[in-house]
Amino acid sequence: MGRAIGIDLGTTNSCAAYVENGTPQVITYRDGSRTIPSVFAIDKQGNRLVGTDAKKHAEVDPNATVQASKRLIGRQFGSNVMEKMKQVFTYELMEGESSEVLIKVSDQVFTLEQISAAILRRIKEAAEEAIDEEVDQAVITVPAYFNDRQRQAVRSAGKLAGLKVLRVLNEPTAAALAYGLGRTLNQRVAIYDLGGGTFDISIIDIKDKIFEVIATGGDTFLGGVDFDDRMMQWVLQKFVDDTGIDLSYDRRAVARIRDASEQAKIRLSSEMMTRVQLQDVCVDDDGNHRDLDVEVGRDQLERLTEDLVDRSMVTCERILGEAGSSREQLDEVLLVGGQSRMPMVRRKLEQFAGKPPSHKVHPDEAVAIGAAIMAHSLSSKAGPQDMTLLDVLPMAIGISKTDGSMHVLFAKNQPLPDYKTRTLMTSKDNQRSIMLRIYQGESKQVAENELLGTFVFSGLREAVKGSVKIEVTFHIDSEGILNLTARDIDTGQLVESRLKLGKDPESAASAAGAAKKKVAKRKPGQEGEAEGEGAPPPAPLAMPTSSLTMKPSLGGHRPDDDMPAPLDDRRGAAAQRRGTPSTGA
């Protein structure tokens, strides 16, 4: 068995670390950097590029360069969020036969898991060079606000990269582990994580090495790339004002300006004024080569992006309320993520918390270090056995009712792991199957939430309607990943359960086989409901087979959590304070 590492798989940059002699070490790459760009590309010769070389390739051929792919992983092509995202990316997005998002790069088609796996594989290779040992295990972090489908996709990417994924860990929780390393604490901390592509806020109690997440939330479409885009759009408009030339249709020029805008944004965290400068950005109608030279100040950047920071503060207010906490009860506010270096972010966060944010963790490395601590604990008996990690569900999980509203099975911020049972019954004579759609999100309407999957329970006994009843057990593990099992209540026999593939006939016309570009829009359907609420099974809806898993065993006991847990996941006394799993909805 090889070594285990912790990986912060970021939207714009990734970082990895390992534990050596009890001390976390951040992996350094050949160029001396401690992070790697989360970028994938294919050059003209067909070579696959990852990291810095791939990022440079964006200026040569942006259409063959994949950036910010983390925002797409685990998404369905026909989902509401994809409608917005497909207008943003320079590379071509396609629809797979199971509604998954595919990316076309230089006439080759990749899944999002394959793109992420290429980045993870490069990190694995760098780690093996640094440690001089085989690396075959990892804890990989995800935004706290990732749903079940996205978490499963990250797990799949790790497996494709040749890694045994010991745990998918929430980024703010990982940062808290890094903060608590070597300290004996009794604190309530807020982890403010504004990274390259996502924002998370978690309220965590740290008491005698027990790390208990009280509430968590975030925004998967708020991060440094959005600040870069605001700066880039402003620079493009300034160039139009100065020269009359609109570069927004020149993808190569836009890629160069985006990179230069990002660098200018970074400089403005320590400087009051800077310049965005590029040589030979275009050739005008008279054949003259034109340079770009735009001066920008910190005050201008703040005017351009203040609403983005305010969005994060609104989320902070909401999560603080969900935690039942006051500002005065926060002992520390920890800054994580590169964008948290922005002075306006720190200023507004101080106004929110009533105290200056802490600088006790490294914004770029804390998440990877926390993941490394977890990886070491899960893979080694020498790990910190006395640490206990208690996490929560970031978004509610439920099923559709006949009126299209969501019946919540697991509430937001439910302590993990947990399980519940639900009874389904047939609604027609001799009905042989029941279909159940499962959703995750914060809306009361399923149409506004993410469809996690469609389960079909088949092989039912032929009988009059209402007489066949199925007990379904929903189990959420410590990673926030859902598992289902089912049995016939009268016979005790396990019921065959499977994920239904293929397009929903209620949606746009299906196109089995080859990937299609057309977006398929879905409608919420009626589900097999609880006892007394039976409904005819709806048409099947597409979903990848990896998005939900099923356990082969079922009984009256709580299903076991698969994850090894030297870093203890047992709820213990903390769980008793917050309630125990229930068997009904």
Briefly characterize the structure.
With 585 residues, the protein is α+β, with helices and mostly antiparallel strands. The protein has helices at 52-57, 80-85, 112-131, 148-160, 171-180, 224-243, 251-267, 298-322, 343-353, 366-379, 572-578, and strands at 3-8, 13-20, 23-26, 36-37, 40-42, 48-50, 65-66, 92-95, 101-105, 108-111, 135-142, 164-170, 186-194, 199-207, 210-219, 273-283, 289-297, 332-336, 388-390, 397-400, 406-410, 418-425, 433-440, 450-458, 469-476, 482-488, 496-499, 549-550.
Task: Characterise the protein shown here.
With 585 residues, this protein is α+β, with helices and mostly antiparallel strands. The protein has 3 domains: 300 residues, Nucleotidyltransferase, domain 5 (2-Layer Sandwich), CATH 3.30.420.40; 80 residues, ATPase, substrate binding domain, subdomain 4 (Actin, Chain A, domain 4); 160 residues, Substrate Binding Domain Of DNAk, Chain A, domain 1. It is 25% helix and 29% strand. The strands form 7 sheets. Strands 1, 2, 3, 4, 11 and 12 form a 6-stranded mixed β-sheet that branches. Strands 18-13-14-15-19 form a 5-stranded mixed β-sheet, sandwiched between helices. α6 crosses α7. The longest helix has 25 residues. It is globular and about 80 Å long. The chain starts with a strand and ends in a 7-residue tail after the last helix.
